[in-house]
Amino acid sequence: MGEGNIIITTTATDGRRTDTRDRIRATALEIFSERGWEGATLREIADRLGITRPALYYHFASKEAILDSIHDELARSVDEIIEWAGTQPTGAATRASVLDRLSALMVGQWGPFMHFAQREDDAMRALKGTAAFIKRMNALGDILSPEDTVAARIRARLALDALFMAGARSERLGGTQTERHEEALTIAKQLTR
Amino acid sequence: MGEGNIIITTTATDGRRTDTRDRIRATALEIFSERGWEGATLREIADRLGITRPALYYHFASKEAILDSIHDELARSVDEIIEWAGTQPTGAATRASVLDRLSALMVGQWGPFMHFAQREDDAMRALKGTAAFIKRMNALGDILSPEDTVAARIRARLALDALFMAGARSERLGGTQTERHEEALTIAKQLTR
DNA sequence: GTCTATAATACGATAGAC
DNA sequence: GTCTATCGTATTATAGAC
């Protein structure tokens, strides 16, 4: 809830880490993406960090609090895009720019997490953080629909899917990671034209 | 493995049900679709059927065996489509027919389950049944790609996503269920042209 | 800030009566 | 074919020492 999103590895003078909270979030993001919400265990997060489970509870009150914290960080970036779109005239150019900005997020570390959050949609509707994510995805779907028809809404959702597809594990599509992102972006723009 | 896929409710002369195995599969399909693999519990399946957890074990050896049994039934339908495509000349007309046949599966009871199986892809790679499902989805992706490029493979995957989207919970897209299926099919055909 | 030890709960699965 | 009772193991989470 409001932490910075730049992770800098530091050590105190006695050698103890002082960035454990950020390291927990980074590792949890990996494991949520790999295993899904139910499949991800605090044991695995702790083990991968080389600490014990109780130590996690010093930094976060619950498993859900870790997810919420990760989501808060992503939400700021997505909200920026949504708010920016609100200041622009509706049109194909604005939709293309929104897709450009979203694609940039996917290329970074958010690709696997957005894939996770999207895939867990109904299973996780109960989770506060993810419910908010779904609302943001719906807002993006509305922004990306050129007109108010079922077909346009399906196409807008597919445009988002295209970006997610390139952002997540997608080696089977062939080509380089960069190539996949570029092609997905091109197709997404065609779908929202 | 090898049971019929038509569920007929019958009762023996003393009033006991004789179709519990099929009822378990139908209910499990619902709950897997709603909650995902880890989120689905045998407790909920049993409760919804009005029986106890141990009673499930009379019909299936394990939770995984239930999933495998459901998957076997779907696999026969998907394999029919894949095999039929193999006998046809490659071309836009064949791809459109494959999409028609897949869409017909989605309109039936398989839509939510295909959404489930697709979404659980990496979390469930360990599960025998789902691993086989992923292989079939990859085969369909190949069949639906007009050429051997990254862009074509992304478009083929999005065509499948469009059908899945209409088949699963998708009320937010507006329109009627029939309308959503028709529009999704049209878009899918455009993507694989 | 991290540890050991443990509580409380839920899970999948089994044994054996009926 | 379904039940009651239970086992063994995992989970999230907490208490209190250091």
Q: Which characteristics define this entry?
A:
DNA-binding, 193 residues, mainly alpha, 8 helices
Oligomer: homodimer
Order of helices and strands of chain A: HHHHHHHH
Instruction: Give me the Rg of chain A, rounded.
Output: 18 Å
Helix proportion of chain A: over 70%
How would a crystallographer describe the biggest sheet of chain A?
none
> Distance between the terminal alpha carbons of chain A, to the nearest Å?
37 Å
Chart the SSEs and their pairings.
The structure is a homodimer of 193-residue chains.
Chain A: H1 20-39, H2 42-49, H3 53-59, H4 63-86, H5 92-119, H6 128-144, H7 150-167, H8 177-191
Helix pairs in contact in A: 1-2, 1-4, 1-5, 4-5, 4-6, 5-6, 5-7, 5-8, 6-7, 7-8
Chain A binds a DNA duplex (18 and 18 nucleotides) through residues 16-18, 20, 41-43, 51-55, 57-59, 61-63.
